[in-house]
Amino acid sequence: MNKQDVLRHMHISPINCSENMITIIDSSIDKILNSTAPKTLYRIFNCDVSENETVINNIVFKSKNLSENLSGCKKVVVFGATLGIECDRLIQRSIITDTVKALALQASATIRIEEICDLLEEEIKLAYKINLRKRFSPGYGDLDICEQKKLFSLIELTKRIGITLTDTYEMIPSKSVTAFIGIDND
Amino acid sequence: MIKYFDGAMGTMLDLKAGELPEQLNLTNPKKILAIHNAYSSAGADIITANTFGANRLKYRNSAEIVRAGVALAKQTGKKVALDIGPTGKLLKPFGDLPFEECIDIFSEMVKAGSDADYILLETMSDTLEIKAGMIAAKENCSLPIIVSMIFDENGRLLTGADIKTACALVEALGASAVGLNCGLGPKHMIPLVKELKKHSSLPIIVMPNAGLPESVNGKTFYNVDNQIFAKHMVEIAKIGVSYLGGCCGTTPQHISSMISATKNIKDVIPKYKTRTIVTSYSESVDFSDKSVIIGERINPTGKKLLKEALRNRDIDYILREGIAQRDAGADILDVNMGLPDINETELLVDSVQELQAILSTPLQIDSADLNALEGALRIYNGKPMINSVNGKEESMRAVFPLAKKYGGVIVCLCLDENGIPSSAEKRIEIAKKIVKTAKEYGINKKDLIIDALTMTVSTDNKNAVETLKAVKYIKNRLKLHTVLGVSNISFGLPNREAINASFYTLALQSGLSAAIINPNSAAMMNAYCSYNALIGLDSNCAEYINSVVKQENAVSLSEMTLSDSIIKGIKEESARLTKLLLQNTNPLDIINNHIITALDTVGERFEKNTLFLPQLLMSADSAKSAFDEIKKHLILNGKNSENGNTVIIATVEGDIHDIGKNIVKVLLSNYGFNVIDLGKDIKCEKVLEAVLKYDAKLVGLSALMTTTVVNMEKTIDLIHKNSKAKVFVGGAVLTRHYAQKINADWYAKDAMESVRIAQNFFGNSL
């Protein structure tokens, strides 16, 4: 994991960062790497992309931005990734005793889940020898966060990797990502 | 004979994404019946009703769907299992589904499906949801409950429990069978079934998927055909099981091949396991492994600071005590909220829930109040220790039924209607009586731990000897585990730790299984670690050495001023320097001349963007440790520590991410405000209730999601209409403009601005 990314996420410049802070960040990165169990799940679907909507498995996602992102794609990866609920506990616990550590853990976890998504993309690219577009998540642009529910009906995120949705469409565990990734045709 | 369940329903229905399978019980019953009949003809003994997700979160008419589902399955003439799957929601405190509501959802299903022959809780991945399901089943029917869980390849539930832990919980709650389904194909389940057999005393059920799902053009296929499935199921059957079946991807062919391949293998119920096990949601403590340390610090008896914290509902104080004890080596934490002037039930339940939100250490629920005890046992996620029952008829009549219903390992005190006998023999008699009575309630010996009672040695010089004699006898002859509250031995004597530690060593030598002690006491932990090293339980003396290093690291020295250490953000040093200053400085002077000036320096730098949030928080945490010392000083000197103006903060309903709000809380309290933190996902009525109760003039609200800003608006409206309090708001989705639109009095772009708002509002800097 890249320490510079964690520092950047915490708005700390590496130049005036105290030794004390570096120790906290190092141990947070270490904690996130060693005591969380990331899980991922994906599936490739055919998709029908028109100007205003994208249809995947008969489910319609109304969003111009998603359509732009997927324009020309015949197939799409639908995926989810999470660091698991123990990561939330870890952060929650340090909030009680040490707010800075909580913040460092929070930043490390955010960087970590992005990294897990990147790794998964690499894995998919290699496995199918394909090129992928940029990932696009509910909540981006005009793709309403409420569309999460439909995305969740496409793959078994709750059963297989434990991501759940609240009534207000927040994902738990909190370090979770879902997204569509267009597959370039060729 | 092994009994056979059927295979997958969903696979046979081949629904489009988003279609709800249980609806078909009403709209296309013929299709469902045809599948049941196919499995029945394939040889299944038990037909699983099509009710897996038929709960009210998914269907308005769930009861009707469940009734229809069970009736359809019954038409096959076979035995029928009411199928109950997970709700799909995560329970509180992490999710938004309250525990009692979850019980209610399952209860509705159980009531509607009570014509079935079994309750099958399956594909469960959360121990708390399993508990909710089992309570629902036990409270609404007397059918046998079969619990089947979904483990990953490493043998863990998604919520963290390993097989041993999950199995202990399910057994304690009174399941008739335990096992695994879904997630994996039969081959990968083989090692997990072996592991389960090592820990389970219950009949075992196994229902694998037909291998792993593969996706072709968005359709799911499972890669294990009926022949290979049957081959692996033979291996599983030979491990020793009672029920077999199939999950996702299996078909009547899979079931029929499996039955013909395994029908001559005898069913086996695992050997009864005698180990005493206490668990949380993810960890278990096995009393057969080593002597267990139960941390005693979360008990207000004789603890002024904790008493004060409980009166102020300072849950964070309780949590910090929990974390400190765990870090010091406690295996289990005792939780007692017995203070005459508080609502014990409410506080015990809340503390248990909050502790479990951050710690996986199992808890010992300790109360003399039966309502409080039941409330906490009910919500507890795992198989707890229960403190306690004694030899009085009344006590046993009250406690044993609770223990039977919710599961747990019970501490049994050797006293009865005639008080505490002075001799070991009489205490042993009481222990025997308790064991016998427990059996009548269906509670097994392994779930009892005997407390032979520590009596003060200064009142009678035989006291220690009699207790040790009883411990030895109970351990060796009655074959029961023992526990002692150790520190009572030295009551009334000087240098109590010396006596406590020596008595602890003697008790360990007499076979003591668990001690309730202060794990923060170096003397006690030294006694414990030395004992383990000396009797050969600590290879290479590694734990002993580790414990010494820990203690040395706790010492630090430097020449900083308090202001320096706060600005630099060094917590331990700030606490130490505050303690020193308190010897000859007025607390208020320390606050004004050292803490607040340091915080202001840091705050200004933050506002000028020369330092950032992490550094600001390091200073805030250091200031907090200084404040904590001052508060402690005031309480111990009998002075009121109440300070500052009250600010209520909360994250609005529907929002469960609260790190931002917590940062605001830390900063506000460090600037001397009396912060009442209502928590996250708080209904607007609750906020108003608190405003009125504490007569608060200022409220801070946070919202993270666009979907929850509406609740923020509602809350503001309610407060403005019913009180004079002002509201400031913050959170990821808000802007100054938006805050204005929803009628907030102020918008705070970050935590520091919240402090400035509060300072300006109350018109001073403290």
Question: What do you see in this structure?
Answer:
Chain A contains seven helices and seven strands, in the order ααβββαβααααβββ. Chain A has a five-stranded antiparallel sheet. A two-stranded antiparallel sheet of chain A has the order 5-6. In chain A, a hairpin with a 5-residue loop joins strand 5 and strand 6. The radius of gyration of chain A is 18 Å and the shape is elongated. In chain B, the strands form five sheets. Chain B has an eight-stranded parallel sheet with strand order 1-10-7-6-5-4-3-2. With 766 residues, chain B is of the alpha/beta class. At the A-B interface, strand 1, helix 4, helix 5, helix 6 and helix 7 of A face helix 12, helix 24 and helix 25 of B.
Layout of helices and strands, plus pairs?
The complex is a heterodimer of chains A (186) and B (766).
Chain A: H1 3-9, H2 19-35, E1 39-49, E2 53-56, E3 59-62, H3 64-70, E4 75-82, H4 85-97, H5 99-128, H6 148-154, H7 157-161, E5 164-165, E6 171-172, E7 176-183
Antiparallel strand pairs in A: 1-2, 1-4, 2-3, 4-7, 5-6
Helix pairs in contact in A: 1-5, 2-5, 4-5
Chain B: E1 3-4, H1 10-13, H2 24-27, H3 29-42, E2 46-48, H4 62-74, E3 79-84, H5 99-112, E4 118-124, H6 127-140, E5 145-149, H7 163-172, E6 177-181, H8 186-199, E7 204-207, E8 213-216, E9 219-222, H9 226-240, E10 243-244, H10 252-262, E11 277-279, E12 284-286, E13 292-298, H11 304-311, H12 315-328, E14 332-336, H13 344-358, E15 363-366, H14 370-379, E16 385-390, H15 393-406, E17 409-413, H16 424-440, E18 448-451, H17 463-476, E19 481-485, H18 496-509, E20 514-517, H19 522-534, H20 542-553, H21 562-568, H22 571-582, H23 587-607, H24 613-636, E21 646-651, H25 659-670, E22 674-677, H26 684-694, E23 698-702, H27 709-722, E24 726-730, H28 736-741, E25 746-747, H29 751-762
Helix pairs in contact in B: 3-4, 3-10, 4-5, 5-6, 7-8, 8-9, 9-10, 12-13, 13-14, 14-15, 16-17, 18-19, 19-20, 21-22, 21-23, 21-24, 22-24, 23-24, 24-25, 25-29, 26-27
